[in-house]
Amino acid sequence: MEIKLTQHSKGGGCGCKISPAVLSEILAAHNVGAKNNIPQLLVGNDSRDDAAVYQLDEKTAMISTTDFFMPIVDDAFAFGQIAAANAISDVYAMGGKPIFALAVLGWPLATLPASVAAQVMEGARKTCTDAGIVIAGGHSIDSQDPIFGLVVNGLVAIENLKRNDTAKQGDLLLLTKPLGVGILATSQKRGLLSEPDLALLVKQLTTINKVGEALGKISGVHAMTDVTGFGLAGHLTEMMQGSGLTAKLSYSKIPIIPEVRHYIAQKAIPGATARNWSATHEGIELDKNIDEKEASLLLPDPQTNGGLLIAVDPSSLMEVQNILKAAGINYTEPIGVCDAASDKKIVINA
């Protein structure tokens, strides 16, 4: 009997994330960072960055992150690949090199056989092998929903560490993957997704952002993060808020999976989209010539293992583009620029 994992959970992928507003409420009294008299903690959760970073010696720091979620695709092996890629990419988003991982598994043994969980692990091992690391341990529980992810540890030269709150005025903004995987994943869960579009979805979701390690060595890359559950609107807002800037984007230059418009017409919208938009739309100004309805569905679309959002000095743009192209990445043109702060965090022209 074919088992469809997405039918065994209420959510999927990074769309499972708690909303930005609720998360802020939960963490209001639990923000930690260097200002908490922990000078070795170079990055804590106070800046809402991709991972925590702890200084080991004068030159090196450890990056530590965890990410897990419920199935975003039906196939168990692919789910393992995707969950692993999503977690590992947090290390790459900070310019680091992953060194090993631990598995986090929750499994409903009453409804799903252990053999399916084994397939999830096999998929994760495949992705970890691609990243040059091993799963060295982990923890598992019997849970109501299938859950899988990784704890990933990495290393970075402190001078190469990239944060999400250090963009500078005049930096150009790039996004290395197109938006729309949240819509495609919801379409699969509802039985609407075509086989070619499913293949497209899985390919994007399983592609690790390994290029982030090389980008970390470029001093002109001033800030970097990966776009995940809060969508482009949420993660770019975090970058601009932390950096004290306003992003000015061209809507026509934002990479979007063309096929998603077909599924938007069928109302295949993730549940997290509305709450992401609710948390960010007051800080976003849209040109009157932009289709506001479409923008409100694409900009906050929750991404899983999304692209790298890069703020780069114009003088380093060609170097960054050459690295991206050598890695087989097609999305190398700037989508906007970082400008002086205004009353809006993001201003989008047609």
Name the features.
alpha+beta, six-stranded mixed beta sheet, 350 residues, Phosphoribosyl-aminoimidazole Synthetase, Chain A, domain 2, 60s Ribosomal Protein L30, Chain: A, seven-stranded mixed beta sheet, 2 domains
Q: What does this 3D model show about the protein?
A:
- The chain has 350 residues and is an alpha+beta fold.
- It has 2 domains: 5-160, PurM-like, N-terminal domain (60s Ribosomal Protein L30, Chain: A), CATH 3.30.1330; 172-349, Phosphoribosyl-aminoimidazole Synthetase, Chain A, domain 2 (Alpha-Beta Complex).
- Helices cover 33% and strands 23% of the residues.
- The protein is built from 11 helices and 13 strands.
- It has a 7-stranded mixed sheet, covered by helices on one side. Strands 1-2-3-6-4-5 form a 6-stranded mixed sheet, with helices on one face.
- A hairpin with an 8-residue loop joins strand 1 (41-43) and strand 2.
- Helix 2 runs parallel beside helix 3 (114-131) and helix 4 crosses helix 5 (195-206).
- It is globular and about 55 Å long.
- The N and C termini lie far apart (49 Å).
Short characterization:
The chain has 350 residues and is of the alpha+beta class. Helix content is 33%, strand content 23%.
CATH class group of the largest domain: Alpha Beta
Shape summary: globular
Question: In percent, how much strand structure appears in the residues?
Answer: 15-25%
CATH architecture of the largest domain: Alpha-Beta Complex
**What is the total tally of β strands?**
13
CATH superfamily of the largest domain: PurM-like C-terminal domain
Query: What is the ordering of alpha helices and beta strands?
Result: HEEEHEHEEEHHHEHEHHEHEHEE
How many helices? The count is 11
Low-confidence stretches: none
